[in-house]
Design goal:
The complex is a heterodimer of chains A (151) and B (371). Chain A has 151 residues and is an alpha/beta fold. Chain A has three helices and seven strands. Chain A has a single domain, classed as Beta Polymerase, domain 2 (2-Layer Sandwich). Helix content of chain A is 21%, strand content 27%. In chain A, the strands form two sheets. In chain A, strands 1-2-5-4-3 form a five-stranded mixed beta sheet. In chain A, helix 3 links the parallel strand 6 and strand 7. The termini of chain A are far apart. In chain B, the strands form three sheets. In chain B, strands 1-2-3 form a three-stranded antiparallel beta sheet. Chain B has a three-stranded antiparallel beta sheet with strand order 6-7-8. Classes of the chains: A alpha/beta (151), B alpha+beta (371). At the A-B interface, strand 3 and helix 3 of A face helix 1, helix 8, strand 6, strand 7 and strand 8 of B.
Chain lengths: 151, 371
């Protein structure tokens, strides 16, 4: 299905969504407050359930964070990208680990490396770094002269 | 919560497997809560080989960052490099020569066979049989020799670059690959005789670590682990890249979802890879092995995502570019990471003795998970 057709279908079920045409897939912009409801709608969409969350990550844009969810439907093989803007001072978003269970580890990784708080997450702890690590390495302003990861 | 060392408040036993344990094939640490012999919870503890490759890549150019990805899933180094090269090519809009495409696919499939062979030997070893390891390595060594001759390395090849491959094939390549095909066909039946048909082995694998189709999709499991549960997820078929849409091969699917199904998927997948190699080995087109590219690559502003099928599943490379010579943000969606997330689900309620059989067939490579 082309991006235009997808856009028409999705704008019907998600009236609050904004769309942008960057990259090869349809980008859907959502507000953090709408996310859990929209996620449920996308997951349980009858003709095209977006049941496969194949990538979950975050991008630090220095002024704000963007959560990026790559979804695909295993029935129609269509892909969409959902983007949710977060406040950089207080990055909080609701977890989707009860909708797509694979998100649990992905979200822990994002919490570990970006410091985004996932509300109602079952087990939000650091994943890759040690529990007493200070700071969030994938943020753009992270500096650590001892454990140097910039080349 | 822990009242005395190694016990929870309910009197359950806590056991640590790893980070140094022969069956985890790397530094994976599992914290297992046991009630008698029954597993109540498996909690993976990661990060022992975390190198922050994603952050490193932010200061490496588009030619340099590919080399770090050989160190992720070191058994699919070619395929990782391939994914990165494809992403950069997608951003630049480069067409690559036909010869390079064929070479890439040949290398990918050889890597897949080598990886599955190592997995087969190592998994049999996990279950207590040492001999299969030597059988697997006999064939795998010939592949490594082929790689060594053409790429100059046996594991971290760094052979695929944006625009094609780094250098042309060694003159012996075709001859060596054909030798390997003969050897493989003469020996592959030993795999079945030695392990697959073995009743002890079957009893340990069947009905163990069952992953349903719905759970596999929900956990984001991909690769042979998901195909053992009947999820059609072979990227080579679903979203063909390179020349896979012109090749004849089957996507292997099993429906049981247990360890034995995952085992059979991998064994049969090796034969499909052999089929692909046979179609290509006599038809390598003449011509350039690399497209002409600029010395300094600059991706336009935007986002690029490319996925490939590695030996373990779907690898995604997500590049966010701001127009510079280095990526603004890069994310590797590694197959091992998602496959690991279902480990607790498939082992919970089972016996501790079955844990290794379940984990072995997920084929986890730890540097791929930690990155």
């Amino acid at each position: 299905m082309s991006n235009e057709e997808l856009k028409t279908i999705i704008s019907e079920i998600l009236p609050n969504a904004s769309f942008e045409e960057t990259g090869e897939w349809l980008n859907i912009g959502l507000e953090a407050a709408d996310w859990i409801e929209s996620a449920n709608k996308l997951r349980n969409f009858e003709s095209m359930p977006f049941n496969f969350l194949f990538c979950l990550t975050c991008v630090d844009w220095k002024t704000h964070f963007t959560m990026v969810y790559h979804l695909r439907s295993t029935t129609t093989l269509d892909n969409i990208v959902v983007k949710v803007k977060l406040d950089r001072e207080k990055p909080e978003i609701i977890t989707v680990s009860d909708i797509w269970r694979g998100a649990e580890l992905f979200e822990r990784e994002v919490y570990d490396l970006f410091g985004v708080i996932f509300l109602e997450h079952p087990d939000l702890r650091r994943l890759l770094l040690t529990d007493d690590w200070v700071g969030y390495p994938l943020r753009k302003d992270y500096e650590d002269p001892i454990n140097m990861i910039k080349l | 919560m822990v009242e005395e060392i190694g016990k929870t408040a309910e009197g359950d036993l806590i056991i640590n497997v790893g980070p140094q344990h022969p069956a985890t094939h790397g530094v994976l640490h599992l914290i297992i809560t046991l009630n008698g012999e029954t597993i109540k919870k498996v909690e993976p503890h990661l990060g022992y080989i975390h190198r922050s490759i994603e952050k490193m890549c932010e200061s490496l150019t588009y030619r340099q960052f590919i080399y770090t990805t050989s160190r992720m899933d070191y058994l699919s180094a070619h395929i990782n490099n391939h994914a990165c090269a494809l992403t950069v090519e997608k951003g630049l809009g480069i067409e690559i020569p036909a010869r390079a495409q064929v070479i890439r696919v040949l290398m990918d499939e050889l890597t897949r066979i080598a990886s599955h062979e190592l997995w087969w030997g190592a998994m049999a070893m996990d279950l207590g049989a040492f001999t299969p390891f030597f059988h697997a390595f006999r064939e795998r060594e010939t592949i490594n020799d082929i790689m060594e001759e053409t790429c100059g390395a046996r594991l971290t090849m760094n052979y695929m670059v944006p625009g094609g491959v780094m250098m042309d094939l060694h003159p012996n390549f075709q001859y060596r690959v054909k030798n390997f095909l003969t050897l493989y066909k003469r020996k592959i039946h030993e795999y079945d005789e030695l392990v697959t048909g073995n009743i002890i082995f079957q009893n340990r694998m069947k009905g163990v670590g069952v992953l349903s189709k719905e759970a596999a999709i929900s956990f984001g499991v991909t690769g042979p682990a998901a195909r053992g549960s009947g999820v059609s997820c072979d990227v080579r078929k679903l979203y063909p890249y390179e020349i896979y849409n012109t090749l004849e091969f089957d996507e292997i699917l099993e429906t049981e979802g247990d360890s034995f199904a995952r085992y059979m998927v991998r064994l049969r997948e090796m034969n499909e890879s052999i089929k692909i190699i046979e179609q290509l080995i006599d038809n390598i087109p003449e011509g350039d092995f690399q497209a002409k590219t600029k010395a300094v690559l600059k991706l336009p502003k935007g986002e690029f995502y490319q996925r490939v099928e590695t030996a373990r599943g779907e690898l995604g490379v997500y590049i966010v570019s701001e127009g510079g010579t280095t990526p603004y943000r890069i994310k590797f969606r590694s197959p091992g990471f998602s496959n690991l997330s279902c480990l607790d689900h498939i082992t919970r309620g089972g016996k501790i003795g079955d844990l290794i059989a379940s984990m072995g067939t997920l084929d986890l490579v730890i540097p791929d998970i930690d990155r």
